[in-house]
């Protein structure tokens, strides 16, 4: 069933796409700076560019998650959103806080803490906005007719993400404490509660796209999120190897973080097996491509490339080098970026009533963006390995090595251009769909037999 | 075959168990581990003031410290041991962007006092026990033997 209030999701996706374009722009600024062209240094120094790049990343992904939740929860709970007007207010508040934060970064209004640069005063506004969001989601779920596993896992992830923002809001005089609790936010988000959100969205998409029995999908959903927490919670230790924390984290972090890829392997198998099992075929092929793509690329970027540097013996050498940037890009894109794209691809025909299920532009967008991102990852990998070999193993000075790496950043910029063409094509499709309509919300979805 | 209920139990028990262990270990790290490892007793007022400056100017947006930050500028964990206080003060008090090897730092033009605080902070961090990070370059060790 579809409900009119689900339309609000569209605006979260529009915001998400807009912020992604801005994020990529700042990515290029940094790519050029690494290559030696830092002409913007006086206006946008590197630390401003990277703060903007990372925070926009987090906000566009979260905006995508929120849009997805506003669409999924009414459907699963079988009721209208409790208060659609508040949802629009929450959207505007999110956009305003985001814009203030980004502008502030250009004037040095920030905290120098990786990923958590948003200053304290704005943190409170973020908290209010998120509480408003959770209020709408939870009340809708409460009032609804059903509380499905998919909806519960998704909401659990969202509540967890909100709670875990709080440890990042404490000031410590000792820098090592700051680092310690920063990971409660960053790690326990991307390798913990966000995986619940991912699992919930993935399960919803698979139920819709493959027609496999809900009970089967939701059973495996529990197994996957079980694996996530089993490995991911103690896996936080892989950030506590060399940051002023006791030695036992080397053992615990090493063992448990090496198990983390299992959860991502689970997601990939989950998606592929359900796809094969499916007895109906939804005509929205693009959505299926992005869904399977997200499940597979998350395993590669987060699972495999994470595993590559997660053992303490390896991490001692790669810690804090461009090897980390390599993993960061494919992991964020594969797991969360592609998931948001998958959801948008699925939802646009439903919201607008236009059945543009499979267009050439849409198909090329998928391939071009992903080839571009894989090439970007390779460029970071080559740069990272050379950096480790020369600086960490060879003992050459950082800047001497950095000046040698420019050609990898030339490759990075070319690859990033390909990636950007891909995502712009996707956005072009998004725009061509037009706005959501009430009449579209009344029509039913269709399936094809295979 | 696994039932949905069993799957739920697996999720709940695993999450509960490992959360408890994690909280227990974190408690030990916070109470005993970090103060010992970072020699908290040497954390003077100047060190804390240096840390405030570190946070305020987002040095981590270009540099790494304890291997965390951005990968655009030198690792600073051992910079005090590597370069000594006078060099660091020259970098921080420079009125023009510091860039002897081509890549520009922000020209902070710190006062003498601010620069001293930052130096104290970097000295303190450099003395922390980081379980062997940053590692001694293999090649240098090899040459020594
Ligand atoms: C979707 C999931 C994941 C995302 C989005 C992600 C993203 C990131 C990012 C952005 C960083 C840099 C963090 C910082 O320095 O502030 C990082 C670091 C790291 N990640 Fe992941 N990651 C994911 C999953 C994994 C998994 C499953 C593993 C292990 C198997 C892993 C292993 C690591 C390690 C060891 C580091 C530390 C690198 C260093 O020492 O510099 N990650 N990750
Ligand atoms: C397409 C254009 C892009 C370019 C040219 C680009 C380039 C860069 C560069 C140069 C850095 C800084 C590395 C450093 O010196 O610290 C960086 C950081 C980062 N970027 Fe991008 N990026 C792009 C797109 C993206 C996208 C689409 C994502 C996520 C889906 C992303 C996620 C990240 C993350 C997580 C970091 C922090 C990594 C870390 O510190 O380990 N970037 N990017
Ligand atoms: Fe992690």
* Tally of DSSP β-strands of chain B: 2
**What is the helix fraction of residues of chain A, given as a range?**
over 70%
Sheet-strand content of chain A, in percent, reads: under 5%
Q: Could you spell the SSE succession of chain B in H and E letters?
A: HHEEHHHH
Spatial ordering of strands, largest sheet of chain A: 1-2
- Give the termini separation of chain B: 60 Å
Structural class of chain B: mainly alpha
Sketch the topology of chain A as an H/E string, one letter per element.
HHHHHHHHHEHHHHHHHE
Runs of chain A in which pLDDT lies below 50 for 5 or more consecutive residues are: none
Task: Give the fraction of residues assigned to helices of chain B.
Answer: 55-70%
- Indicate the low-confidence ranges of chain B by residue numbers: none
**DSSP strand tally of chain A:** 2
Cα gyration radius of chain A (Å): 21 Å
Rg over C-alpha atoms of chain B, rounded to the nearest angstrom:
21 Å
In words, what does this structure look like?
The complex is a heterodimer of chains A (450) and B (145). Chain A is mainly α and 450 residues long. Chain A is built from 16 helices and 2 strands. Chain A has a two-stranded antiparallel ribbon. Chain B is 58% helix and 3% strand. In chain B, strands 1-2 form a two-stranded antiparallel ribbon. The radius of gyration of chain B is 21 Å and the shape is elongated. The longest helix of chain B is centred in the first third of the chain and has 34 residues, at 4-37. By secondary structure, chain B is an all-alpha fold. Chain B folds into 2 domains: 1-38; 39-130, Orthogonal Bundle (Cytochrome Bc1 Complex, Chain D, domain 2), CATH 1.10.760. Chain B has helices at residues 4-37, 45-57, 79-83, 85-93, 112-127, 138-144, and strands at 64-65, 68-69. Chains A and B meet through helix 1, helix 2, helix 6, helix 7 and helix 8 of A and helix 1, helix 2, strand 1, strand 2 and helix 6 of B. Fe (ii) ion binds at residues 187, 191, 238-239 of chain A.
